[in-house]
Amino acid sequence: MNNDLRDKLQHLVFHKPYGVLSKFTDDEGRPTLASYVDVPQVYPAGRLDMDSEGLLLLTSDGSLAARLTSPSYKVPKTYWVQVERIPQEAALSQLRSGVVVKGRRTRPANVHLFSEEPSVYPRPVPIRFRKSVPTAWLRMEISEGLNRQIRRMTAQVGHPTLRVIRVAIGSIQLGTLAPGEWRIPNLTEIQGIFDPASRQNRVGN
Asked: Which whole-number Å values give the CA distances from 99 to 12, 58, 93, in the listed order?
Protein backbone atom coordinates (compact mmCIF):
# COMPACT_ATOMS: atom_id res chain seq x y z
CA MET A 1 0.00 0.00 0.00
CA ASN A 2 1.17 3.50 -0.80
CA ASN A 3 2.52 5.16 2.36
CA ASP A 4 0.77 8.44 1.54
CA LEU A 5 -2.56 6.60 1.38
CA ARG A 6 -1.85 4.74 4.62
CA ASP A 7 -1.15 8.02 6.38
CA LYS A 8 -4.67 9.20 5.50
CA LEU A 9 -6.33 6.16 7.03
CA GLN A 10 -7.63 6.30 10.58
CA HIS A 11 -6.77 3.83 13.34
CA LEU A 12 -7.81 3.84 16.99
CA VAL A 13 -6.62 1.68 19.88
CA PHE A 14 -9.61 1.27 22.18
CA HIS A 15 -9.87 -0.34 25.61
CA LYS A 16 -13.21 -2.12 25.38
CA PRO A 17 -14.88 -2.31 28.78
CA TYR A 18 -16.64 -5.37 30.12
CA GLY A 19 -20.27 -5.62 28.97
CA VAL A 20 -19.83 -3.61 25.76
CA LEU A 21 -20.45 -5.09 22.31
CA SER A 22 -17.73 -4.87 19.66
CA LYS A 23 -19.97 -2.94 17.27
CA PHE A 24 -21.65 0.45 16.96
CA THR A 25 -25.35 -0.52 16.86
CA ASP A 26 -27.51 -3.11 18.55
CA ASP A 27 -31.20 -3.83 18.01
CA GLU A 28 -31.54 -4.97 21.62
CA GLY A 29 -30.26 -1.71 23.08
CA ARG A 30 -27.17 -3.20 24.71
CA PRO A 31 -24.05 -1.04 25.27
CA THR A 32 -21.98 -0.51 22.11
CA LEU A 33 -18.88 1.31 20.90
CA ALA A 34 -21.03 4.30 19.98
CA SER A 35 -21.06 5.35 23.64
CA TYR A 36 -17.28 5.74 23.61
CA VAL A 37 -16.06 6.45 20.07
CA ASP A 38 -17.36 9.31 17.93
CA VAL A 39 -15.04 8.98 14.97
CA PRO A 40 -16.53 8.39 11.51
CA GLN A 41 -15.55 5.59 9.15
CA VAL A 42 -13.72 3.36 11.63
CA TYR A 43 -14.81 -0.19 12.34
CA PRO A 44 -13.56 -2.99 14.60
CA ALA A 45 -10.82 -5.16 13.12
CA GLY A 46 -12.00 -8.37 14.74
CA ARG A 47 -13.99 -8.54 17.94
CA LEU A 48 -13.99 -9.20 21.64
CA ASP A 49 -16.85 -11.00 23.35
CA MET A 50 -19.20 -8.85 25.38
CA ASP A 51 -17.82 -10.29 28.62
CA SER A 52 -14.18 -9.86 27.57
CA GLU A 53 -12.14 -6.68 27.93
CA GLY A 54 -9.13 -4.94 26.53
CA LEU A 55 -7.57 -3.99 23.23
CA LEU A 56 -9.83 -3.52 20.23
CA LEU A 57 -8.39 -1.92 17.10
CA LEU A 58 -10.76 0.27 15.09
CA THR A 59 -9.68 1.17 11.57
CA SER A 60 -10.79 2.54 8.22
CA ASP A 61 -8.19 0.33 6.51
CA GLY A 62 -9.77 -2.78 5.03
CA SER A 63 -6.42 -4.43 4.29
CA LEU A 64 -5.30 -4.00 7.90
CA ALA A 65 -8.59 -5.40 9.18
CA ALA A 66 -8.26 -8.40 6.86
CA ARG A 67 -4.71 -9.07 8.03
CA LEU A 68 -5.78 -9.02 11.69
CA THR A 69 -8.83 -11.24 11.23
CA SER A 70 -7.51 -13.81 8.75
CA PRO A 71 -5.94 -16.85 10.47
CA SER A 72 -3.56 -17.27 7.51
CA TYR A 73 -1.47 -14.27 8.68
CA LYS A 74 -1.10 -15.70 12.21
CA VAL A 75 -0.98 -12.27 13.86
CA PRO A 76 -0.44 -13.04 17.58
CA LYS A 77 -2.94 -11.79 20.13
CA THR A 78 -2.00 -11.71 23.80
CA TYR A 79 -4.40 -12.03 26.74
CA TRP A 80 -4.24 -11.91 30.50
CA VAL A 81 -6.59 -14.62 31.72
CA GLN A 82 -7.85 -15.20 35.25
CA VAL A 83 -8.84 -18.83 35.86
CA GLU A 84 -10.20 -20.94 38.67
CA ARG A 85 -7.55 -22.82 40.65
CA ILE A 86 -3.82 -22.78 40.04
CA PRO A 87 -2.85 -24.73 36.90
CA GLN A 88 -0.18 -27.36 37.23
CA GLU A 89 2.48 -27.88 34.58
CA ALA A 90 0.46 -30.66 32.93
CA ALA A 91 -2.42 -28.28 32.20
CA LEU A 92 -0.06 -25.60 30.90
CA SER A 93 1.64 -28.15 28.64
CA GLN A 94 -1.72 -29.11 27.18
CA LEU A 95 -2.47 -25.50 26.32
CA ARG A 96 0.97 -25.09 24.79
CA SER A 97 0.45 -28.16 22.61
CA GLY A 98 -3.09 -27.24 21.55
CA VAL A 99 -6.36 -28.68 22.80
CA VAL A 100 -9.47 -29.94 21.03
CA VAL A 101 -12.22 -27.30 20.95
CA LYS A 102 -15.51 -28.15 19.25
CA GLY A 103 -13.98 -30.99 17.27
CA ARG A 104 -10.77 -29.28 16.12
CA ARG A 105 -7.37 -28.88 17.69
CA THR A 106 -6.23 -25.34 18.39
CA ARG A 107 -2.82 -24.14 17.36
CA PRO A 108 -0.20 -24.31 20.11
CA ALA A 109 -0.45 -21.36 22.49
CA ASN A 110 2.32 -19.46 24.24
CA VAL A 111 1.27 -19.75 27.90
CA HIS A 112 2.88 -18.57 31.13
CA LEU A 113 1.62 -18.55 34.71
CA PHE A 114 1.95 -15.19 36.46
CA SER A 115 3.93 -15.47 39.70
CA GLU A 116 1.73 -12.73 41.18
CA GLU A 117 -1.51 -11.04 40.20
CA PRO A 118 -0.98 -8.44 37.45
CA SER A 119 -2.12 -4.85 37.93
CA VAL A 120 -5.48 -4.51 36.17
CA TYR A 121 -8.36 -2.05 36.24
CA PRO A 122 -11.31 -3.09 38.43
CA ARG A 123 -14.26 -4.59 36.60
CA PRO A 124 -17.73 -3.06 37.09
CA VAL A 125 -19.20 -6.52 37.60
CA PRO A 126 -16.93 -8.54 39.94
CA ILE A 127 -15.94 -12.07 38.99
CA ARG A 128 -17.74 -14.88 40.79
CA PHE A 129 -15.91 -15.50 44.03
CA ARG A 130 -15.68 -18.75 45.94
CA LYS A 131 -13.66 -18.62 49.14
CA SER A 132 -12.60 -22.24 48.83
CA VAL A 133 -11.38 -21.90 45.23
CA PRO A 134 -8.17 -19.94 44.55
CA THR A 135 -7.61 -18.18 41.24
CA ALA A 136 -4.56 -17.64 39.05
CA TRP A 137 -3.58 -15.42 36.12
CA LEU A 138 -2.17 -16.69 32.84
CA ARG A 139 -0.57 -14.85 29.95
CA MET A 140 -1.82 -16.55 26.79
CA GLU A 141 -0.75 -15.73 23.25
CA ILE A 142 -2.68 -17.28 20.37
CA SER A 143 -2.63 -16.71 16.61
CA GLU A 144 -6.18 -17.67 15.71
CA GLY A 145 -9.59 -16.42 16.76
CA LEU A 146 -12.09 -19.21 17.26
CA ASN A 147 -15.33 -18.27 18.98
CA ARG A 148 -14.68 -17.90 22.73
CA GLN A 149 -11.40 -19.72 22.19
CA ILE A 150 -9.60 -18.68 25.39
CA ARG A 151 -12.52 -19.70 27.59
CA ARG A 152 -12.95 -23.02 25.84
CA MET A 153 -9.26 -23.82 25.96
CA THR A 154 -8.90 -23.24 29.70
CA ALA A 155 -12.14 -25.11 30.42
CA GLN A 156 -10.83 -28.06 28.42
CA VAL A 157 -7.88 -28.41 30.81
CA GLY A 158 -10.03 -28.02 33.93
CA HIS A 159 -9.59 -24.31 34.68
CA PRO A 160 -12.69 -22.26 33.84
CA THR A 161 -11.96 -18.68 32.83
CA LEU A 162 -13.20 -15.90 35.11
CA ARG A 163 -11.83 -12.87 33.27
CA VAL A 164 -10.20 -12.17 29.89
CA ILE A 165 -8.25 -8.99 29.04
CA ARG A 166 -6.59 -8.63 25.64
CA VAL A 167 -3.36 -6.68 26.08
CA ALA A 168 -1.73 -6.87 22.64
CA ILE A 169 -2.40 -7.50 18.97
CA GLY A 170 0.90 -8.06 17.22
CA SER A 171 2.95 -4.88 17.65
CA ILE A 172 0.06 -2.88 19.16
CA GLN A 173 -0.18 -2.88 22.95
CA LEU A 174 -2.94 -1.77 25.30
CA GLY A 175 -0.52 -0.34 27.85
CA THR A 176 -2.12 1.78 30.59
CA LEU A 177 -5.13 2.86 28.52
CA ALA A 178 -8.17 2.90 30.83
CA PRO A 179 -11.44 1.12 30.02
CA GLY A 180 -13.55 3.23 27.67
CA GLU A 181 -10.61 5.34 26.49
CA TRP A 182 -8.92 5.32 23.08
CA ARG A 183 -5.75 6.64 21.52
CA ILE A 184 -4.26 6.99 18.04
CA PRO A 185 -1.48 4.43 17.44
CA ASN A 186 1.80 5.62 16.01
CA LEU A 187 2.97 4.68 12.53
CA THR A 188 5.49 2.18 13.88
CA GLU A 189 2.74 0.23 15.62
CA ILE A 190 0.66 0.01 12.45
CA GLN A 191 3.61 -0.83 10.22
CA GLY A 192 4.51 -3.58 12.67
CA ILE A 193 1.31 -5.44 11.80
CA PHE A 194 2.47 -5.63 8.17
CA ASP A 195 6.06 -6.53 9.11
CA PRO A 196 6.38 -10.09 10.51
CA ALA A 197 9.81 -9.25 11.98
CA SER A 198 8.08 -6.96 14.49
CA ARG A 199 6.54 -9.97 16.17
CA GLN A 200 9.83 -10.51 17.95
CA ASN A 201 8.88 -7.49 20.08
CA ARG A 202 5.63 -8.89 21.42
CA VAL A 203 4.43 -7.98 24.89
CA GLY A 204 6.08 -9.98 27.64
CA ASN A 205 9.10 -10.99 25.54
From this structure: 33, 30, 10
Q: Quick check: helix, strand or coil at residue 95?
A: helix
Mean pLDDT of the 160-181 span: 95
Same domain? For 14 and 45 the reply is yes
Is residue 195 flagged as an active site residue? no
Q: For residues 100 and 81, what is the distance between their CA atoms, to the nearest angstrom?
A: 19
pTM of the model: 0.89
Contact 202, 175 (CB under 8 A): no
Q: Which of 36, 43, 48, 56 is nearest to 10 (CA)?
A: 43
What does the pLDDT look like over 134-150, one tens digit per residue?
999 999 999 887 889 99
Domain that holds residue 80: 75-167
How far apart CA 187 and CA 193 sit, in angstroms, is 10
E strand map for 2-109: 11-16, 43-44, 53-59, 77-84, 100-101, 104-105
Q: Are 145 and 195 part of one and the same domain?
A: no
Exactly one of 7, 49, 51, 61 is catalytic; name it: 49
